Amino acid sequence: MCLAIPAQVTELLGDGMARIDMGGVSKAISVALVENVAVGDFVVVHVGYALSKIDAEEAERTLALLREAASMETP
Fold it and tell me: What is the DSSP string of the chain?
């Protein structure tokens, strides 16, 4: 299964790259596929690429669901 995870842009690095915060982990990703990315925006990230922008509420809802799923016990 592949997941795209919300992350917040913390720095624009130039050349279509940005630094994001993903649950306390800082990582450089490509934002070349998304227009008008700014510091503070939330983006959906998959394999090092921002796929789209989302609002902060949607990002938090998605992250909460992922945290809940991670805490579930498996049979």
Answer: ----EEEEEEEEEETTEEEEEETTEEEEEE-TTSSS--TT-EEEEETTEEEEEE-HHHHHHHHHHHHHHHHSPP-
The two tokens of residue 9 are 């842009």
pLDDT digit string (tens) for 14-29? 999 999 999 899 999 9
For the domain 5-71, what is the CATH code? 2.30.30.140
- Decide: 48 and 58 in contact? Cβ < 8 Å: no
